[in-house]
């Protein structure tokens, strides 16, 4: 054993499932990954600076839709999964996976502070024979140029003493067709031995591993996936505006177009972008491209279009109130349906609903919301004023107290039939027509 290299020792531990896995960041990405690793037999230790998350995990209470409380409790009881808010046990981990946020700064520049602070915590506890993998979405070059030098402040060398890789997260909250184990996993290592270790680790957890040549390529894969979605959503948002002016329903157009079995993929308009990826990731690429003197006109135009959508929705609401009810927006009471950024989840990160509420209230409207998945508006750094605001019950009596209903998120659990009783419905998701409900009081926006 004494003659074996750090690579050989670690490789053997991964293959025989005796490696200890540490997952830093127990949110929508980290907790499902930790559960997937523990489910396959790895002893798994989760880390999160929010002490409430380890407390809930040890109590067997899941706070993520993708993980059931029952499975969480079983893994904790079996001793395969534990969690802590202290980094002292990082040295016990053979594999360390970083799943921390990568937000944007005030000027839409990358904020890598969470990655950097986490890397410093790891570096202070590194030992030979550990694999560190970054999953946080970021610009091409981050793993090699930012994470690697910070880890090597430990005095250990990547590729010799320790090993480094990147594997972009591909979680899709609310998607019941796929989970962490069934979504193909793109992986890359910094050097051939790191590549072997990353493939072995994820190969033990997921059904399909997709190796690429370098962390830079893997980082570019994730950015490309989200730029693709952002640009196509911007396209249909612009088409919605054009066709609406012509009296053409964009939703009918899309439904007919998607019958073509080749050369077309449906995307749908909405009130703006939300979630942890699509509103943010394209700007990581535009920032990075400036270093190479390469313009990103197409991506930036898509960002402008998508960012403008909440403003267009509010204008449509104001026009509809004036035309149908002879009422100014400043004198109105609005009920917003859906605070989450997408249907059937409780995730409010970057939700356009917050922007809609902000715009409406800035123009004097009084706004409440109903969301069956979000009983109380959580704390967010960008929208402090809404924290603690409760979801109102959706009843006929409640509807009579509002001048208009604005459908921002089309949760399946909403009683849309009841909305037929509302004075005015502004539908940004085509939720009413898709359910065959009366359109007499509905304006699409």
SS-derived structural category: alpha/beta
Kindly state the percentage of residues in helix: 25-40%
**Global Rg:** 24 Å
Q: What proportion of the residues form beta strands (DSSP E)?
A: 5-15%
Query: Largest beta sheet, briefly?
Result: 8 strands, mixed
- The order of strands across the largest sheet is 3-2-1-4-5-6-7-8
Form type: elongated
The ordered string of helix (H) and strand (E) elements is: HEHEHHEEHEHEEHEHHHHEHEHEEHE
Top-tier CATH class of the largest domain: Alpha Beta
Give the count of structural domains.
Answer: 2
> How is the CATH topology of the largest domain named?
Rossmann fold
Q: Helix segment count?
A: 14
Q: Which architecture of the largest domain per CATH?
A: 3-Layer(aba) Sandwich
Number of strands: 13
**N→C terminal distance:** 67 Å
What this model shows, in words?
The chain is an alpha/beta fold and 445 residues long. It folds into 2 domains: 6-213, Rossmann fold, CATH 3.40.50.720; 229-444, NAD(P)-binding Rossmann-like Domain (Rossmann fold, 3-Layer(aba) Sandwich). Helix content is 37%, strand content 12%. The chain is built from 14 helices and 13 strands. It has an 8-stranded mixed beta sheet, sandwiched between helices. The model has no long low-confidence stretch (mean pLDDT 95).
Write the layout of secondary structure elements.
Layout: H1 6-15, E1 20-24, H2 30-39, E2 43-47, H3 52-58, H4 69-77, E3 81-84, E4 95-98, H5 113-123, E5 131-134, H6 142-151, E6 163-166, E7 185-189, H7 192-203, E8 209-211, H8 215-245, H9 250-257, H10 281-290, H11 297-325, E9 333-337, H12 352-362, E10 366-370, H13 396-399, E11 404-407, E12 425-427, H14 431-434, E13 442-444
Helix pairs in contact: 1-7, 5-6, 8-10, 8-11, 11-12
